[in-house]
Amino acid sequence: MRPVGSKYVLEESLGRGATGTVWRGRVREDAAVPGLLPGQAVAVKVLREELAADPDVVMRFLRERSVLLRLTHPNIVRTRDLVVEGELLALVMDLVDGPDLYRYLRESGPLSPIAGALLMAQIADALAASHADGVVHRDLKPANVLLATLAVDGDERMHPMLTDFGIARLADSPGITRTHEFVGTPVYVAPESADGRPQTAAVDVYGAGIMLYELVTGRPPFQGDNPLAVLQAHLAQEPQRPRTMPEPLWTVVERCLRKDPAQRPTAVSLAGALRVVAAGVGVHSSPAAVDAALAVGDLLVPDPALAAPAGAHDATLAGVGYDPAAATQVMAHQPPVPGTEDRTQLIAPQPPAAPPAERTRVMPAVPPAPEQAPAQPEGPHPWQTQLRAARDRNAQTRIGYFEPDGPGEPQVAPRPYQAGQQHPQQGGGYPQPGPGGRPPVAPPPYQRPAQDGRYAPQQGPYQPQQPQQGGHPQQGRGGRPPVAPPPYQAQQQHQQPAGYGGQPGYEAPPNYGAPQRRAEPPAPQRRPEPEPPREREREREPRRRSPNRMRIPGLGCLKGCLLVLVVLAVGCLALWNFTPLPHYWDNVVGWYDSARNWVTSHT
Ligand SMILES: Nc1ncnc2c1ncn2[C@@H]1O[C@H](COP(=O)(O)OP(=O)(O)OP(=O)(O)O)[C@@H](O)[C@H]1O
């Protein structure tokens, strides 16, 4: 057990990301921490040494301490303490007893449109609260949503909680990144982050749009063979509506994915709109709820501050907790700086033997959007596509490198959207049937033995300033809300979202409905070990086979037998030559001869 500061001990590593390692820890018995009991289990994110060694990061860490500590919401993992000890920086958080959303999706498959909308509505609630408090997440992705288990009416339901607040911004230190770099995860990065414009609260709404698309289709809308291609797709490609996505839900996704941040809805209006969509896309939705869902576009109100004329952006940045100077330092366009690759290895280390091409893919430049993506001669095999999509989903946070004016390396065209690649369980219409038209099957609830440090949402002092009217539609199996909510009122803009725990308007959706099939066999309950960087994996070519396709039956078996025989022969030789075996053998032969002589002489 390793001590952290004077108040905590680390017990077991839960996993490692690009910015640090998360440990299961405990409050020391003799320590007094406000809001935590002695001996209580906690999660401790120990930031990477490179970050902790950067004075700018330490300064921000201390400066943002109070902001992070006061960020409380039922759908946000609460930060309880920030520890600075020598060269160690750590955030102490509530320990959430459940998988992250990435893992859940990987194990259980996509959600129904209703379940996906209800889940994202809660994430949008969390974003709305944090934006109101001046904090932009900037690294929204399924891996940063933890699924706690809540007991509701005797049922265990999953409750999404957003984590890693402030981390991307901490890592975005001028000491770690340069002006042409940014921190983010390529698949979820907003266009303005990719090409170096200021990042406002709208980057989180964009990330929410990507996640929403992925939750219900099983894959993100923009993909590519390398981070650069993905960034280019964010910048240049228009998302396509999947055939099976209900129209109102697509309206929401499409608005969130607008290239212009000023056209994206606020997180508050997004949360409300998603609940209206969830209420209006079920087969048992009332005509009024259906109409309200079809008119959802009216509810998606953009942030007026973002639409303000040039010059107002600094105020906007300050309003969302950004230090304008820091944002300019990090995001300004600049010509390439020699040695950048080395510096960025601080965050995304590359093996020394990695070929240069691999390094440039980790830190790709983003040239102007291509006029027309050249067609690929031949698409990848379906399993390659699936594997790549799975990897992209859990892409780690990385520092991207944008160099808009620099010479770009030869590009691989982003794969165009192919409707045929839809997840098979996405049937036409909604609610969606499972494969072969079967109704969706509720996933087995994620179960893990209860622990003393388990997340207890009722402890959170979050007090919504204004509970929402109308409420959160209950979702039954098959994704039907039994009661349609009254239409969302657009005047609720910029107000704290409805919370949970006795506040009107919030009810946790049951099990987030119904992944329709298992994407792959269940993974062990152990926390995943850190994954190596994706680029290295991508480099691995599929095994090349000989062009000679002649097959000799039993050849493999014969080879195996021969190998065993050779090993046995070598073993016997070694035994004979390097052990006293020959001496014992002579003795045995001598005893045999004397016994035989004795027998022949007495017969
Ligand atoms: N508060 C928490 N309680 C329980 N487990 C947690 C908590 N925070 C993070 N974890 C788990 O720790 C592991 C590592 O988390 P981390 O945030 O470092 O990873 P990541 O989000 O994949 O990485 P990154 O965002 O840096 O690319 C994940 O498996 C995550 O589920």
UniProtKB/TrEMBL annotation:
Residues 372-382, 415-425, 448-475, 489-498 have a biased composition (Low complexity). ATP binds at residue 45. Residues 526-544 have a biased composition (Basic and acidic residues). It comes from the Bacteria. One of its GO terms (molecular function) is protein serine/threonine kinase activity. Its EC number is 2.7.11.1. Residues 8-277 form the Protein kinase domain. InterPro entries: Kinase-like_dom_sf (IPR011009), NEK_Ser/Thr_kinase (IPR050660), Prot_kinase_dom (IPR000719), Protein_kinase_ATP_BS (IPR017441), Ser/Thr_kinase_AS (IPR008271). Residues 333-383, 399-549 are annotated as: Disordered. Keywords: ATP-binding, Kinase, Nucleotide-binding, Transferase. Residues 432-447 have a biased composition (Pro residues). Belongs to the protein kinase superfamily. NEK Ser/Thr protein kinase family. NIMA subfamily. This is non-specific serine/threonine protein kinase. The lineage of its organism: Bacteria, Bacillati, Actinomycetota, Actinomycetes, Kitasatosporales.
